[in-house]
């Protein structure tokens, strides 16, 4: 199977919104405003660095939202990293065929080309299949950065993209008894 990665186009919005919801629903059904946001890639595009889609035989089968500090979609604490991604979703019909891995490899390569030093991501605790993709690519769990969301705990992973990343970002800190609430983390980020 040949997987091609490209930037999203307006004609992809409906397909990407649908496949994102179907992918998330295989792990846990999300309700409310966040579900509406997941279904609307045009809104995500307005608040991110890039929104990538994966195609197989001219059919969109996956998506990933690339973010950097300063993007409204950046959800991490200050100093955690200088790039990341969100909303990795693969059409359940092709799950396990390498689409998710190809999207992650693409965004890592792009981040390195853009001069980023550390990638930081959050993955909900119930998204265990995705955790394997991240860990096989060298991402390291950072429980000191975990965040509480209405749907559960967001597990944070980081990946150093350069040898100098260790000196550019704070080392792991104490793991709190309970992860902070996501709105508090976003508020701290917005104060900078």
The CATH class: Alpha Beta
**Count of strand segments:** 8
Order of helices and strands: EHHHEEEHEHEEEHH
Low-confidence stretches: none
- Cα distance spanning the termini: 44 Å
CATH superfamily name?
A: Gcn5-related N-acetyltransferase (GNAT)
What sort of overall outline do the alpha carbons produce when their principal axes are compared? Answer: globular
CATH domain topology:
Aminopeptidase
Number of domains: 1
Strand order of the largest sheet: 1-2-3-4
Mean residue pLDDT: 92
Number of helices: 7
Largest sheet: 4 strands, antiparallel
| C-alpha-based Rg, rounded | 16 Å
Taken as a percent bin, the fraction of beta residues is: 25-35%
CATH architecture identity: 3-Layer(aba) Sandwich
Class derived from helix and strand content: alpha+beta
Helical content, roughly?
Answer: 25-40%
Give a structural overview.
The protein has 192 residues and is an alpha+beta fold. The protein has one domain (4-190): Gcn5-related N-acetyltransferase (GNAT) (Aminopeptidase), CATH 3.40.630.30. Helix content is 33%, strand content 25%. The protein has a four-stranded antiparallel β-sheet with strand order 1-2-3-4. Strands 5, 6, 7 and 8 form a four-stranded antiparallel β-sheet that branches. It starts with a strand and ends with a helix.
Search tags:
alpha+beta; Aminopeptidase; 4-stranded antiparallel β-sheet; 8 strands; 33% helix
